[in-house]
């Protein structure tokens, strides 16, 4: 397999090499390599959700491991009008891939999701996040990626979102939906900064890339299987939007 040397540095290079090895080993044994998506579980809908206020557009910012997969999942959700990969949790001056990959900036690889609250609620966005997007019991890691930049985090964009996120985290914890405690951080008041253009739409553009095939395509399949009422076959792409801000 030809590997783009742009990625052979930091987390992504190691992840791609590991994913390539898993693909090769699985093929040799006639088995598909396991990923988080093989162990997804259904979670109950939030008991507390936002109160409709007539708004036609809202944004949510979520972090759950490599932003390629998080973006890829939400691009297939009906009611989502945009999903942009980027960084949240740190300063604007360090919001770039090379520095964030060092794990010392306070940033997490994140996705800003713009959605129509008349078609899908913030609570539903969170339900998908806690079930099909990532494992919220993994501390500072997801799959082959480790470091605080891959932490599980919700960045509320309003007091109402913070209220819903805190209530839902408590609800899932009290219900013992997972075998371990949820480590998801709720971090209000943080700005989001779009990632570099080559990170946008990465899953849609590279569905057979080993890292994507092992770690992220199964998440889109989980979305389709678990939430057929909100799944859309054609993703909403950043490339089709006027800009990524």
TrEMBL record:
Enzyme Commission number(s) of this protein: 1.8.4.11
Name of a matching Pfam family: PMSR
Catalytic activity: [thioredoxin]-disulfide + L-methionine + H2O = L-methionine (S)-S-oxide + [thioredoxin]-dithiol; L-methionyl-[protein] + [thioredoxin]-disulfide + H2O = L-methionyl-(S)-S-oxide-[protein] + [thioredoxin]-dithiol
Gene3D superfamilies: Peptide methionine sulphoxide reductase MsrA
The keyword Transmembrane helix is assigned to this record: no
Key words, A-Z: Oxidoreductase
Peptide methionine sulphoxide reductase MsrA domain sequence ranges: 59-209
Record bears the keyword Nucleotide-binding: no
Enzyme class, UniProt record, top EC level: oxidoreductase
Residues at the active site: 66
UniProt-listed PANTHER family: PEPTIDE METHIONINE SULFOXIDE REDUCTASE, PEPTIDE METHIONINE SULFOXIDE REDUCTASE MSRA 2
Family from the record: Belongs to the MsrA Met sulfoxide reductase family.
HAMAP family in the cross-refs: MsrA
Known role: Has an important function as a repair enzyme for proteins that have been inactivated by oxidation. Catalyzes the reversible oxidation-reduction of methionine sulfoxide in proteins to methionine.
Protein name, per record: Peptide methionine sulfoxide reductase MsrA
Organism field: Lichenifustis flavocetrariae
């Amino acid at each position: 397999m030809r590997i783009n040397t742009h990625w052979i540095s930091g987390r992504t290079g190691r992840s791609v090499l590991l994913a390539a090895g898993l693909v090769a080993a699985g093929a040799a044994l006639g088995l598909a390599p396991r990923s988080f998506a093989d162990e997804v579980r259904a979670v109950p809908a939030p008991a507390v959700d936002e109160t409709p206020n007539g708004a036609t557009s809202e944004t949510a910012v979520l972090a759950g491991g490599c932003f390629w997969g998080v973006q890829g999942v939400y691009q297939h959700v009906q009611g989502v009008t945009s999903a942009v990969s980027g960084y949240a949790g740190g300063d604007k001056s360090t919001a770039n891939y090379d520095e964030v990959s060092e794990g010392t900036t306070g940033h997490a690889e994140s996705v800003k999701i713009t959605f129509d609250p008349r078609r899908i609620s913030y609570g539903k966005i969170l339900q998908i996040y806690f079930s099909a997007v990532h494992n919220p019991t993994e501390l500072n890691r997801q799959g082959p990626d480790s470091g605080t930049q891959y932490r599980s985090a919700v960045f509320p964009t309003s007091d109402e979102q913070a209220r819903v996120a805190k209530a839902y985290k408590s609800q899932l914890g009290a219900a013992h939906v997972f075998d371990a405690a949820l480590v998801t951080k709720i971090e209000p008041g943080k700005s989001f900064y779009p990632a570099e253009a080559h990170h946008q739409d990465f899953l849609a553009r590279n569905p057979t890339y080993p890292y994507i095939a092992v770690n992220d395509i199964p998440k889109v399949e989980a979305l389709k299987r678990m939430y057929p009422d909100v799944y859309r076959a054609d993703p909403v792409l950043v490339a089709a939007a006027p800009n990524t801000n």
